[in-house]
Amino acid sequence: MRQDQRPYWVKKAYLKFRYWYAEHFLRPACDELGPHHTIMKPWHVSIDGPNIRIGKCVTLIGEPNTPVKLGVWGREPGQGSITVGDYVLMSPGTRISASDEITIGDSVMMANSVYITDCDWHGIYDRTERSERVMPVHVGNNVWLGDHCVVLKGVTIGENSVVAANAIVTKDVPANVVVAGNPARVVKELDPERGFTTRADFFAEPVKQAEFYDAVDRMVLSKNGFFNWLRAMLFPNQRD
Ligand SMILES: CC(C)(COP(=O)(O)OP(=O)(O)OC[C@H]1O[C@@H](n2cnc3c(N)ncnc32)[C@H](O)[C@@H]1OP(=O)(O)O)[C@@H](O)C(=O)NCCC(=O)NCCS
């Protein structure tokens, strides 16, 4: 379908169900889940383990083959944590696996299939043992992690920095730079004097923003008929 053929009320019902699902199945999995979340296809988001805190206005996008996965597997029961700030975006395929501690700042954007871990999980010489080499990972405010990049144990990424697509980050990244490659190296300095527009700006007034999108949906979808929507699903044509 090239256009959204759903009647307004069908979309509203879908969004209500989606919200209910996230509240019913994902909220209990978190120690904290802030208000105004947008969790798309929450049935493809998995949150496992203790001490997982997520701030307000988070956007999580689950997809069937690329679910979003947050997991804490501490060294002892109840140990380990993942702390996610406000206004964070996690695209399909994002995986965050913590043994001890991973913190994600406010307004961090993660593109598809980003992987962040604070542990190697297996010993280099004894592959059957759990690795003791664990070092916390801290991702600063307003960091942008590009498509398929990997952030490994012990890394701190300074605020506003950008990690290029497919980069493997093995060492600390200063603030206000672009890093790329494997292992990631600084390829560009950013000018913080120019200022950054962030997801915190975008979500400054979440209630008003939700009302705005609802008004747009009402305007665009209100002329869609129920039977035409069914017809378009079962017998689509190029005009759909
Ligand atoms: C990080 C990024 C945004 C930087 O873009 P940019 O500021 O225009 O950077 P440039 O193209 O000037 O690249 C600077 C240098 O880094 C290199 N570089 C850029 N991206 C790279 C990558 N992914 N891997 C390796 N090297 C890369 C460039 O070749 C260039 O090297 P040079 O100075 O020797 O010529 C961009 O390279 C990128 O990775 N985009 C993908 C973003 C993404 O994942 N989006 C998904 C939706 S959220």
Automatic annotation (TrEMBL):
One of its GO terms (molecular function) is acyltransferase activity. The keyword Kinase does not apply. This is Acyltransferase. Keywords: Acyltransferase, Transferase. PANTHER family: SIALIC ACID SYNTHASE-RELATED. The keyword Iron does not apply. It holds the Pfam family Hexapep. It comes from the Bacteria. InterPro entries: Hexapep, Hexapeptide_acetyltransf, Trimer_LpxA-like_sf.
